[in-house]
Amino acid sequence: MQREKFVLLLRKYLKNQLSTPAKTLIENWFTSIGKNDTIDIDATQETELKKRYYKAIKRRIDTSESRRLSFTHWKEMSIAASLLAFVCVGIYLYRHNSAVAIEAHPNLSKVLNTDGVDKTITLPDGSKVILHHGSEIEYFKTGGQTAREVYLKGTAFFDVTHNPSQPFVVYTNNLITKVLGTSFTIDENETGDVLVSVKTGRVSVFSNEHESQDKNQQQVILTPNQKVLFKSKDQKMVSGLVEKPQQIDNQQNILDTYRREYLQAPAAEIFEAMEKLYGVPIDFELSEFSTCKVTTSLESGDLYDRLNIVCEVLNATYTIDGLSIKIKGVGCENVLED
Prior knowledge:
By secondary structure, the chain is an alpha+beta fold.
């Protein structure tokens, strides 16, 4: 792991949000301070880290001063304070001494894909990960955690086994993605920008930077065919539709309800079927298309392909407006076919 991921673990430790194995990892590292080789860092890095951890410690003190600190709280505080003296921040900061990580927590598994092609990995809970070339994930080999946690660097597609009692959480340098059971893709580039796109289910995404703040202001909920792009430079998240929206899985009942083939069907009925099949709101003025009829198929194809065909027939246009689509037209007098 990189330093940012270890810092995230420390933050979660201070808030008592870590699973038992992760707590053990942090506490073993703290115990080992001074027993392992130290690492040289320059004065600028040391100053930067001292400032960061001073703020973290101050926040902890401010939120704790109204209650009596237990022994556990003092232990947490001592760990945070030790970071000021040992700004190398432990086992994840230096890859050349990876044996320390193995000793500290042998239950942690790392996979780096150097195969040149996508690599499929089955996690202990049965979830599938398609790891792109050059990408890396880390995860716990066995259960026991309150959440199923994965640390990603690069790009991967996740098909998550449903488990309401144990959320599935993916950490990147700048974003946290949390689900119960769904399929989605995370793509983190070298600049720290992160793109999350959803195929099935619901996904909650929020920034690492604001993990301890009001998540209602930072959190984005994504549904199928939606995406969010986190821009590292601006520290902002921008939502939108994926490049090629596909029909939502397990929509056979909707296809049966709305039919696969449309023969001289009202345009409004086709738009309604598209909205259900792709999970994307489609806005249009009913009065503009009340006399329009279309012959077309919704058997397959992405949403934009279907829209292009129907809009050409109707002499209409569509625009993507955030997470929805708006259709404009001049109406039609005659029965139309594609």
